[in-house]
Design a protein that fits this description.
By secondary structure, this protein is of the alpha+beta class. It contains 3 helices and 6 strands, in the order E-H-E-E-E-E-H-E-H. A 4-stranded antiparallel sheet has the order 4-5-1-6. It has a two-stranded antiparallel sheet with strand order 2-3. The radius of gyration is 16 Å and the shape is flat. The protein starts with a strand and ends with a helix.
């Protein structure tokens, strides 16, 4: 059976980042973030997408997730931009048909 999914794991090397702000930028670009804007007496909340919001994925743990192999090119490019500040790896994984369909539906629900 052809493996169509990839498990990605990463670890940040906090000391390699110039600042906590730069480290946070990495996380925001990957996972997205919630932005709160206060204007006069009102408060507006916006969801800003990250790379993972643009593709179906399962988040297994804080720094472990599964994506479809077809999205690996974009993910590899992202991680290579940060390669001096993080350590990452990928592993081919097999999902059963039901799990794979759930993964594909994740993008439709986002």
């Amino acid at each position: 059976m052809k493996k169509r999914t990839v498990l990605i794991t990463f670890t940040v090397k906090t000391s390699k980042f110039e600042s906590m702000s730069e480290r946070n930028k990495f996380y925001k670009e990957l996972y997205g973030w919630k932005q709160i804007v206060k204007k006069q007496e009102k408060r507006y909340t916006y969801r800003r997408d990250g790379l993972l919001d643009e593709m179906p994925h399962f988040r297994v743990d804080r720094s472990i997730f599964i994506i479809m192999k077809e999205h690996m090119g974009r993910m590899r490019k992202f991680f290579e931009e940060w390669e001096d500040k993080i350590k990452w790896d990928m592993f081919d994984v097999s999902l059963n048909k039901r799990q794979e369909e759930m993964l594909r539906r994740c993008s439709d629900e986002g």
